[in-house]
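Kindly review this protein for my students:
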Amino acid sequence: MRLAALTYLVPDYDEGIAFFTALGWRVTADEDQGRKRWVTLSDGTLELVLARAEGARQQEAVGNQFGGRVGLFLRTEDFAASAARIIEAGGSFEEAPRDEPYGRVAVWRDPWGTRWDLIEPRAGDNPAA
């Protein structure tokens, strides 16, 4: 078994689509289901299922989906280019990139406040690890 998809709360479907497609993800489904839409995006490995936050509890979780911790990790082969793309799409970095034993990394936030890591693994490291 492997994780194939992850639900991600957003305040609005179209805002979510705009952000993730600006990062280079592609929309794999966008189906109207009446009161909601089935929206999925893929980076080529994983699918995100966008869920529009409904009700106070879900709306409070937007931007805090992992309790304030970094909960999502993007790998890249070109840190500088990917960082520029994140900023252009509406993300912001909390820190300057730093070099760790596993590679170059920096914490950033998406437009809604959720914390992510951008990681460029060291040369020769297994990107699937």
Observations:
- Residues 23 and 70 are 18 Å apart (CA to CA).
- The longest helix spans residues 79-89.
- The helical segments are 13-22, 55-61, 79-89.
- The two ends are 16 Å apart (CA to CA).
